[in-house]
Amino acid sequence: MGTLEGKRIWITGASSGIGEALAHACRAQGAELILSARRMSELERVAAQLASDQKPTGITLQVLDVSDAASIPDIVSSVIAKTGSIDILINNAGISQRSYAAETSLEVDRRIMEVNFFGTIALTKAVLPDMLARNSGMIIVISSISGKFGFYLRSAYAASKHALHGFFESLRMEVWQQGVRVMMVCPGKIRTNISLNALKADGSTHRSMDDGQAGGRSARELADRILLGIRRNEEEVFFGGPEMKAVWIKRFFPRLFSKLIRKQKPE
Ligand SMILES: NC(=O)c1ccc[n+]([C@@H]2O[C@H](COP(=O)([O-])OP(=O)(O)OC[C@H]3O[C@@H](n4cnc5c(N)ncnc54)[C@H](OP(=O)(O)O)[C@@H]3O)[C@@H](O)[C@H]2O)c1
């Protein structure tokens, strides 16, 4: 029996990368899944791979654009009515950025905030009342090491991830006595399509696999690490390659960090 047997887990951004890997890892541990993203065709591809396992039931696909906040309350109500209460919400959907702050339109900054920050909190606020009513539940947020320090070409992305930490650290304090847990995940470089889908200054997509991304850790390794974090009831999970040292250098030696980080390749 898997460690997530009987748990119902909603994963956003499940059509690709980290979300897709989380779907496989959670499924392997016996979870029921609700998989969301904007592209139903890609969700169906993921579900078809999952359904080749022993237990083809218990997978619900739900198209969801997290930046469409107005649609979220009705979607959450209909999902809960159909599947039952959500035990674990994994807020993973996100977009990155590859553009200098001075050249990036405010519209692009807002788009990144709408998906990464407002989309995440809108879905959380819609799922939370049912968790609070049951005195049980876990909310996981896929942040980034960009939620711990800024970097070249990531001004709005880093802002959106920093904002998540402020919001969810406050929420954690507010709901722990009612049995709801909050876990923040800070990955370094993970090999996914994130750089292909990242927004440039004019809002078009970057469409290029960065060297750092291509050399990153696998999404499946990260998914397994997140599942370990769930079992250990961790509040923050860090996972990646040598770039993770920057988090600790910034925390303990901020001036040294500032000198070292500006020597890194802007990509
Ligand atoms: N890869 C890394 O190195 C890395 C590092 C740190 C943090 N992260 C974070 O990990 C998360 C997943 O990224 P990834 O690396 O797996 O990238 P990815 O392969 O590009 O996947 C992004 C996922 O988000 C979904 N998505 C994008 N916009 C959406 C929207 N408006 N509404 C709903 N879903 C949306 C996409 O699905 P559709 O296009 O079908 O909607 C896709 O499933 C992101 O939050 C990212 O910031 C990634």
Number of helices, counting only DSSP H or I runs of 4 residues or more? 10
The CATH architecture can be named as: 3-Layer(aba) Sandwich
Shape estimate:
globular
Question: Major β-sheet, in short?
Answer: 7 strands, parallel
What is the H/E string? Answer: EHEHEHEHEHEHHHEHH
Output the structural class.
Answer: alpha/beta
The overall number of domains is 1
Q: Classify the fold: give the CATH topology.
A: Rossmann fold
**What proportion strand?**
5-15%
* Strand order of the biggest β-sheet: 3-2-1-4-5-6-7
Heterogens: NADP nicotinamide-adenine-dinucleotide phosphate
Describe the secondary structure blueprint for this structure.
Blueprint: E1 8-12, H1 17-28, E2 32-37, H2 40-51, E3 59-63, H3 72-83, E4 88-91, H4 106-134, E5 137-142, H5 155-175, E6 180-187, H6 194-197, H7 211-214, H8 219-232, E7 236-239, H9 245-252, H10 254-261
This protein binds NADP nicotinamide-adenine-dinucleotide phosphate.
Structure, described:
The protein has helices at residues 17-28, 40-51, 72-83, 106-134, 155-175, 194-197, 211-214, 219-232, 245-252, 254-261, and strands at 8-12, 32-37, 59-63, 88-91, 137-142, 180-187, 236-239. The chain has a single domain, classed as Rossmann fold. It contains ten helices and seven strands. 40% of the residues are buried. The longest helix is centred in the middle third of the chain and has 29 residues, at 106-134. With 267 residues, the protein is an alpha/beta fold. Helix 5 links the parallel strand 5 (137-142) and strand 6 (180-187). It is globular, with a radius of gyration of 18 Å. The protein binds NADP nicotinamide-adenine-dinucleotide phosphate (NAP). The site of NADP nicotinamide-adenine-dinucleotide phosphate has 32 residues, from helix 1 and helix 6.
